[in-house]
Structures are given as C-alpha cells and as structure tokens.
Amino acid sequence: MQSRLRVQGHPIQPMLVTFPYGLFVSAVVFDLTDVIGGPAFLGEVGYWTAVAALVAAGLTAMAGMVDLWDVPGGRTRRTAIAFNLVNLAMAGLFLVTCLIRSDSPQRGASVPMLVTELVALTVGAVGVRLGARLVRRFDEAGADETNFDALPGVAGSTVEIVRPRP
What we know:
It is a single chain. The chain has about 170 residues and is mainly alpha-helical. The protein has helices at about 15, 20-35, 40-70, 75-100, 110-140, and strands at about 5, 10, 160. The chain starts with a strand and ends in a 5-residue tail after the last strand. The model is unreliable at about 145-150 and about 155 (pLDDT under 50).
C-alpha cells in the first residue's frame, strides 16, 4: 500500500506528525518552566507553542484522513484509525488547556493545566507506538524500496498526489 500524498516517493504524514509532537513537547517544557518559577513570559510562549502545535496537528490530521481512505481493511485499518483517534485525543486535551488559557491576560500555565498537558503527552506516546507499528506494516508491504541516495532527480514539483496501487 502506498500513501496518496507523497514527496519524492515518501509519504507526507509520517513527516508532518513530527511537528505537532515536537511542538507539544516544547509547550510542556515552557509551561513546566513557568510553573516552577521561571520568567512569566515562558507561560505565554508555551501557550503560543501549543497553538502552533494545534495548527500543525490539524494539517497532519488532514493528511492522515487522505491516507486512511486507502488503507485496506483488517488489522492495519484498525491500527490507522486508532492512531488518528489517539492523536485527536492528545490534540483535544491541549485544545482544552489552550481555550482555558485564552481568557487570562498573561496566558500562563497552572499546575492543573500542566498535569492535563502531561496526560496528553502520555496519550501521544501511545500514538507514537501506533504510528511506528503502521510504518513497519507499510514497510513490510514494500511500499517504496528507495532511500535518500537512490532518489531520482525531479525537474519541477517534487510533491505528488497519486492514486495508490491496489
């Protein structure tokens, strides 16, 4: 099975998923620093980092939905659906904390919000495991046997949207 959304023959969603995960972790680090007594502006930086992560999570979810369209039934499809639902749950928990923080003038973090974010990261860890399982399954199916050294030179656009092979 191949992904519909690819860059140079490699699926886009596994590349995109690193952005929200990294931004969510960064937001928690900023918020933790704010809660333990760091400079107050770090709480606001954590808030805006979480907002950026939510935008990235939305874009990643759209790419995941396009890919989910062609995942064959069975265990792989169930894993892909679980992966997307877990990522949605993580983003939902961060969305709740962002909505609560949006009303305050400083947008700083509090201990309950930090705990909620840590729970969200724990949920995200389950998503990382499911994503790794999906990548292994797609590799076993022989989706694309190329590596960076074997990429052909492409004149023009390197982003392609293709119909996957059955």
